[in-house]
Design brief:
sodium:phosphate symporter activity, Na/Pi-cotransporter, 17 helices
Length: about 325
Amino acid sequence: MIFFSVVQLIAGLILFLGGLQAVKDSFYQAAGDKLTTIIRLLTTNVITGILTGMVVTMLIQSSSATTVIIISLVNAEVLSLRKALGVIMGANIGTTVTVQLISFSLGQYIGWIIIASLIINIIYWLTKQRLLKYLGRGLLGFSILWIGLEMLSNIMTYWQDVEWFIDFLAQLSSNPLLGLLLGILVTATIQSSSALTGLVVALAKVNLIGLPAAISLTLGSNIGTCITAFLAAMGSSLAAKRTAIMHLLFNMLGAIVWLPLLPIFTRVVLLTSEQLTRQIANAHTIFNLVNTGLILGVRDQFVALVVKVTKNRE
């Protein structure tokens, strides 16, 4: 039975990630090379940088892709380190939209979304409008993503009776540092915070995970996802490497601030919704909004810290 449940778990993850990738690719291709131009033109100051990073990441559903673009612009000396910080902060806020979307109970509407996708694709074949092509694919990808999430939620009901699994989740709730480290390790290994997010939401749908454990895993996934930026910065200029380090420090400092305050933070998040899945999504959003506000107030000192940390590399 465990073997079949693991197979179903893997199948659900594949569908979830495949659907998410289809959504990302569709909107990324729809934007084409304009994303680089948009980021370059709209990052006139830190505030416009935050808004640009947020909107671009909301559209392409990938903070990692946004960060890679930022690193390439910094490497080409088109974007300064100070302006890059704004876009990175905005990207961290924008990526919370994915969690917000999957936290809603949209299963009953999936059939209608699939029908809408098919209609849009038919219209595309008749009109050859490029944007319709990617919109139709994006909606279909979202449907597949949701089907995968529902599969994950359904298979999680089996794990309710697995004693060692329940004990492990209890450990995560009582030891936030363990949840943080696990979130970092899993996300860095598979290079996808979305996969971990999908699992956490699936666990929440069947009440197998508590809010403190879900928050600690989310904090860890924010740090673990920085591995993509480091890989993109390898072999690039010092400024590009500093951008990757800046991304890491932003998330690490946020985790260091919030982890000791987790009991207070949890009580605040509990006030935002009665549904656990919504609480998890709201915690993710609040975490990144507050982090951005904190760093925004000391952005010059933060950039100076990044430069100082990497000074011996010059």
